[in-house]
Structure formats: C-alpha cells, structure tokens
C-alpha cells in the first residue's frame, strides 16, 4: 500500500546547474556583455538612455541552426541602428499552453514528445552562449522557476507572461532574478494583475528553490526594482492606443510606480494577425515621436519566414526558419520596420 506518487511514471536525476555551467561556461567578456546590456535596459527605463528598446525574434526557438542564421542577420541590423535603437533578441525556450501542445525547446528539444529535458537545457545554454558571443543581448520568458539557475547568467531581459503574472510562484521568482523584468497584463486585458506583480516582485520573498548544486534550498531574495509593464492586449481587444497608455500611466502612478511601458505588437494587440504588427509598431512609434515618454520599448514576433506551421506528427518536413508556435513576420519585413524607425527617430 502506498499513498504517494500514484500518478508518477518516472523520475530521472537532472544535471545540476554547476555541471552544465562547466560544460558551457560563460567567460569574463560574455559576463561583461550581459551586465552591460542589463545596465542599458535599466537606463532606457529611467530615461538616462533615450534609445528605443526593441525586443524582436521568433515566437519560440525550435531550430538551433535557424536561430543562429536569424541572429547573424539581427546583429548586422542592430549595429546599423544602435545609435537610436537598442535591440534584444527574443530567445524563448518555454511556452505556456492554454491546454496542451509543444511546450518549447527545453521541454521537448526533439519535437517528438520524448521530453528530453536535459538535452533541452544543454541546447538552450549552448545557444545563449553563441548568441552572446555574436553580440546580441538575449530576452526570454521565465516559466519554470528552476530554469534561472541553469540559464539566468546569460539573460539580459526577462518577461513574465500573461498567464503567469498572477502566479505567486513567478512573482517570488522574479523578486530574485538578476535582470530587468517586464510583466504582461493578463489575458483578459486586466492591468492590475501585472501592476500587483510588479509591486510583489519589488519586495523581498522567501520560498523553496534549488541552488547551483541542484539542492532544494530556502531562497531569500532582495526584491527586484527593475520592473515594468508590458501591454499585450487581451480578450477585450488591443490596449496600445493613447487612451490605454493613459490608463496604464494612471494606475502605475497611483501606486508610485514609474510609468514605463513596453508595447507588445503581437498577440491581442494585433488581434493575433501577425501582418498587423507593423501597424501597431508604427502607431506606437508615432506616439513616442509625438512626446509620449512612457513608451520605452516595442516587441515584435519575427522569424526568417513569415507565418507559422503545424508541428504535426513529424518534424522532418518543417520549413526552415518558420515558426511552429505563433505566426511571425519575415526577416525582410522586420528589417524594413526597424530601419524605418531608425530614420524617423
């Protein structure tokens, strides 16, 4: 007779954070690069750096080679616009699902449901190191609270998604993360969810986590003071218009938070139509050019090839550089949008 683990099929001991960092170690130059990128983001949020923050890249990473090809193109563009635009590459390895589906490269790197998580973590860290060495700051969504111990030293910006901004676990985790963090409004468009998350994450917390040796540890945090609100729209429609921005500033001011905003041009703000991202981007850029100082950054979902494709039962026939999650704009469109913004700024 037993009353525990009745629905557990298997457990495997995972490689520790220290072990993976020995295999894929960050050197002093890469360490300094990440630290500098985080400082730049903080300065943009405090208006000490007047550049526009642009977080751009695939909805999710599923193909290592495609991610590297995209990164080289993005690095070249980033260098061209760096005097006015600070670019971060979206490097999303974990995907929250409304019900079920592919959970991202970390959970299922083989794209076949085998869930070789150790391989996924190794692949993710290797990719982050290569992108850092290319010269691109990396932004990601923090979903599994264990992952920051494995990858956090290579991340420059973190998002907490619409589904998890209300989660106490993610608020506690965020209070200890080393990066600036953007909290997205809820899927219903509610701003208070994210604002409450910002307030919570700014305070110290104590919770169970793991240390670098993989041991369960009581984790005490200092609180994270580098947080901001990300508007991504909701079930009630887009929320990037001037009246939405005014409402966001009002609620942030009421709780003595700086009215710093990033606008997600995808998701509900584009009514889930990837082709509308450019319109959202241009509208928000024009607001900023007209003096709307609250807009600090914009997000785009972009890939080598536009649209998306179904993973289906096999990964052998996938189109190279095309999303298997949300639809994305293609590289040429991405380049045109950012180059035009550079000219306008």
Task: Describe the overall structure.
It is a single chain. The longest helix is centred in the first third of the chain and has 18 residues, at 28-45. This protein has a single domain (29-311, 318-344), classed as TIM Barrel (Alpha-Beta Barrel), CATH 3.20.20. α3 runs parallel beside α4. It is of the alpha/beta class and 345 residues long. Helices cover 36% and strands 14% of the residues. It has an eight-stranded parallel β-barrel, surrounded by six helices. A two-stranded antiparallel sheet has the order 6-7. α9 (277-289) links the parallel β9 (261-264) and β10.
Blueprint (SSEs and pairs):
Elements: H1 17-23, H2 28-45, E1 52-57, H3 64-81, E2 85-90, H4 117-134, E3 138-141, H5 148-151, E4 157-160, H6 168-176, E5 181-184, H7 192-201, E6 206-210, E7 216-220, E8 227-231, H8 242-254, E9 261-264, H9 277-289, E10 295-301, H10 331-344
Parallel strand pairs: 1-2, 1-10, 2-3, 3-4, 4-5, 5-8, 8-9, 9-10
Antiparallel strand pairs: 6-7
Helix pairs in contact: 3-4, 3-10, 6-7, 9-10
Helix/strand order: HHEHEHEHEHEHEEEHEHEH
Distance between the termini: 70 Å
CATH fold field value: TIM Barrel
Low-confidence stretches: none
The CATH homologous superfamily: Aldolase class I
Oligomer: single chain
CATH class: Alpha Beta
Largest sheet: 8 strands, parallel, barrel
* Binned strand content: 5-15%
Shape: globular
Class of secondary structure makeup: alpha/beta
Question: Order of strands side by side in the largest beta sheet?
Answer: 1-2-3-4-5-8-9-10
Q: Average pLDDT value? A: 96
Q: What is the count of structural domains?
A: 1
Output the radius of gyration. 19 Å
Helix content: 25-40%
What's the CATH architecture?
A: Alpha-Beta Barrel
How many helical elements?
10
